[in-house]
Structure formats: C-alpha cells, structure tokens
Design a protein that fits this description.
Helices cover 37% and strands 22% of the residues. By secondary structure, it is an alpha+beta fold. Helix 2 runs parallel beside helix 7, helix 10 runs parallel beside helix 11 and helix 15 packs across helix 17. Bound molecules: adenosine-5'-triphosphate (ATP) and magnesium ion (MG). Magnesium ion binds next to helix 2.
Amino acid sequence: MPRIHPLPDLLISQIAAGEVVERPASVLKELVENSLDAGATRIDAQIEEGGVKLIRVADDGGGIPREDLPLAFARHATSKIATLDDLERVASYGFRGEALASIAAVARVSITSRTADAGHAWKLDAGAPDCAPAALAAGTVIVVADLYFNTPARRKFLKSAATEFAHCDDVLVRMAQARPDVAFSLSHNGQVKRRLPATDFRGRARDLMGEPFLAHARAVDTEAGPLRLSGFAALPAYAKPSRAEQYFFVNGRFVRDKLLIHAAREAYADILHGAHHPAYVLFLELDPAAVDVNVHPAKTEVRFRDARGVHQFVFHALQRALAEPLAAARTEVMPATVPSPAITPTLQVPSQSALSLREPDARAYLDFARQAFADAASTPPTAATVPPAPTFQAEAQDSPLGFALGQLQGIYILAQNAQGLVLVDMHAAHERVLYEKLKAAADAAPTTQALLVPVLFAASARELACAEEQAEALATLGFAIAPAGPQQLAVRGVPALLAGGNVENLARALLAELAEQPASRVLATRRNELLATMACHGAVRARRSLTLPEMNALLRQMEATERADQCNHGRPTWVQLSLADLDKLFMRGK
Ligand SMILES: Nc1ncnc2c1ncn2[C@@H]1O[C@H](COP(=O)(O)OP(=O)(O)OP(=O)(O)O)[C@@H](O)[C@H]1O
Ligand SMILES: [Mg+2]
C-alpha cells in the first residue's frame, strides 16, 4: 500500500478540470460568464475546429489590472466573493475562482486585458513568469488553444467538430437569452454563425426562437412578493416533439431543474396531452439568498430554500398566462397597423329576430353589419377605395376572431377579422368552450336542469348497475338518472349547460366511462376527464348547420373562454390566414 502524499498542483487542477471543463462548450460558458460578470456590453466568441483548436472570447468589460493577472489563473482566487455571507447571496455567475485555473490546466491559455485607467493592455500566458505589454483598446480577450493537449484521454471523448460547435452554440444561445442587453457574436472556423445586436427580451426571443414561436407565445410577467416570473410561453399549437425549446433561467442563470420543469409541465397539463413538449423561455427571479447555486460543478442545478413555494408560484403564474382569454391576452393577435379588409355588398344582415346572441354582442354585431352594409351599398368597394370602416375597427378591438361569413362543409366556420380570414374548427372550439364552462359550473356546484319529459332508453344490466352505484357521482356532475324498469333508464335531469344536446348519447357515454372506472372516491381527480367526455358529447357535431348569429356567438364565447385557442387534445381550434397569406396564394403584388 503506497503512503499518503499530497498531489501536485497541476494534477489537482486537472482533476478539478474534469468536472468544470467537460467539453469545449464548458470553456465557452465559463469565459462568457466571466465577461458578463465584468460588465461587458458586447461579447465576441470565435471557435475553431469545434473549440478543440481554439476558443477566443473578447469583451468590452472592466478588464483585469496588471497586478491581478497572475491571480486570475490561480485556483481559489476570485474578485467576486470574500465571505460565506457573500457566497450565500451571490449574484454573479462566478464565485469559485476555479474556472480559469481549471481551463489553464488542460489547455494553453492567455489573457490580454486593459482596465479603463491603464495606458495600454497587458498580456499574460498561463505558466509564464510575467506579463508583457500588449495592444487592446479596452476589455479582455481570453484565448484557449489546444484543449486537452496534455490529457489525451479526455480528448478521445470529444465528438466531431460540428457536434462540439453545436454545443458551443447552445451555450451562447442560453447566455444570450438571459442577457438581451448585451450584443453577442459567434463564429466557427472564420464564419460568422450568429450576430445578435443588443435588444430587449422580446427582440432576443425573436432572434433566437424565431417568429413562429413568438406568434404562438403568451407573454408571462407575474410577481408575488419576492418572486417574479417573466418571459414567453408558447401555446400548445406550437408544442415540439423534444424539450429543445425549453429555457429556464434562475436569476439569469440557465438551469435544468426538475422542479421547474415539472411545474411548467403541470401548467400545461390541461391543454397539452400526449408526447409533445411545450416551448418556453422563462425567467425566475428571486432573492439570491433563497436559492443555492453552489450544488453542481457546472452550476446548471440549483436548490431552492422553499421548493414548494417556488413550484406553486411558477405553476400558477404560467397556468394563468396560458389560460388568459384571447381578448385579454398579450399576444400579437391584433397588430395595430393591419389594413381593414374590403367588405362586399353581398354581406347578409340578419334580422333582429334571428339573433340569439347575448345582448351587447347582438347589438355590436348588428351595428357593425348595418354600417358595413351601408358603406358597401353606396359605393362598390375595392380594397383600395374603401376607407377602413370605423365600426369594424372599433369592434375588431373587442372581437379578435372577427365575424362569421359562413360555414364550410359543416365543419369549419369562416370569419373575417381585421387581419383577414379566420378558420375555426367548430366542434373542437365548442368542445373547449363547453369544457371550461362545465369546469366552472362544477366548481360552483352544477345546476341541474330538470327535463320536462324524461328521456327513457333501453339500458343494459351493466348500465343499470352503474347508474345505481354511481348515482352520487352522477348527481355531482349534474345528472339525475334512475332505473325506470327492469331494462330501462330514465334521465330526468342534465347539467343546464348540456340541456340542448342528445341526452341519451350523453348519458350512455358517461355511464360507459363510469362503469369502466367507478368514480366514487376518485371523482375529484377524475372529474375533469368526465367533464371532457361530457363536453365532447355536448359540443355541436360536425355537419350541423349553424346560423350566422350562432356562429358569431361561438366566436364571442371563444374569445371569452380561457384556453380557447386549443381543443382538449392540444390541437388548435382556429387559425388565421392574413391578407398577406392570401395574397401569397394568389401571387398578388408579384
Ligand atoms: N473577462 C474578464 N474580465 C474581467 N475580469 C475577468 C475576466 N475573466 C476573469 N476575470 C477575473 O478573473 C477571476 C478568475 O476567473 P474565474 O472564472 O477563474 O473565477 P470566477 O469567475 O471568480 O469564479 P468561477 O470559478 O465560479 O467562474 C475573476 O474573479 C475575475 O476577477
Ligand atoms: Mg468565472
């Protein structure tokens, strides 16, 4: 057995590097974090051969004074904390004083830096005895060359240059998401791969996630005491087969935290089913003392002092943002500058008696239709000559989904809004509206509507038994169903919201589901499933023809309903085809 002996410094650093410098992307992350800690407003990263040959990061931050340069490479030397108290409320990315020492143990590293008050820059190669004067306008340039040159075993684990660069790109994207106020660029083998000008969070999200993400995203911004959640969360129509578009930041630090991912997943649970993953960029801010960042060598995991509180807060904030009804949501559904479409004289003005809309809706719609019809009748309009109808503009603000034009094949509603054409999946939309209403009614004890004439139907033994055993659950859901003979069931009451539907089908579907899985004790947890079944059966079937006022009523209900933009299965309930989209179809303006 060999004797115990202290390890040489270089080996100690190489061991530490094993944790900190997993691959080239980890080097990039540490360097960019240092630049941000130094107050940089622009950071330029150059990568060669996936980062194995070279990683160079230049910033315009505060720089390092000449006397401190040797300390930058020393282990456990940092300018960022001094006491345990500092560590417990650390707000900088760095705090260990370990990154540069670890990197210098497995690569050839040099720092060139100039502070604001220095006459010129100084350069220090790791391992060299002294600094040398150098040319640099301001800030710091760190060059890391020949990664793992002295630890060939590590080098073998690296993937292709393209893969390693992709990881570097991921790192840069994460840092850039968190700091839109800083300009970034990233190049690989001399080619610029990203150029990100300083902007705001929305601008950065657009640059990094793309316009389709933003178009489907709800803005989140909720504060509760010391907690704040902000960012963007895409609606389920934009869900992805992988988690690649999920970004969570805690006090500006990208983290992969099970608790936060779980809270987000839960917030989507009611609107996103199946194998799809939501997309979001979310920033959680809280008192640095309430979160421990010193639990993982790459600092990608954190520990919350009040894990439960954080989970609840994130869940509720996100759920609320996703549920906000269309009319109130802060998405860009209604850009203010879209031209108003021309309205043709063939527009039907429904008579007052045909209206079954809620009163204010009905009046608004009538006013709009009259005005539009009057405008259209006096001068045959073209897109160019018709001035925007003021009524339409005014109403459009409150009616993002516009007004119905007609029905297509009994499946889709066609409507026009200020942007162009809106297509609505009638059944899916109605199902969602009903589901939300049923949930609200169930929360407030559902009102049962007694049927004047009970609906009788021949029932199987199983259905009869189920109706008896589950009488209580059925009552809770708003049904009054009882045997009316040895082979017959009578429905004497249904939830008021479903009174107009096919009572027999509804009752059968519900009994089938209850027989499958009795609900006596689990009603609370299964309630929403049962309500979904009810909504599906209560919703207008495809092929049923609706009147224009009925269609408009549905559009207004959708606008007022939480989560109305997707059906219970996460599919969209409506899509927008803008005039520009339509112009493209007809190659207008080409
Ligand atoms: N780009 C930079 N501009 C200014 N100072 C820098 C820069 N990079 C490093 N430094 C200085 O060098 C010190 C050591 O950096 P290093 O990354 O090794 O440690 P750290 O950032 O303090 O902690 P950690 O190991 O957690 O990253 C920093 O504390 C900082 O003072
Ligand atoms: Mg650092």
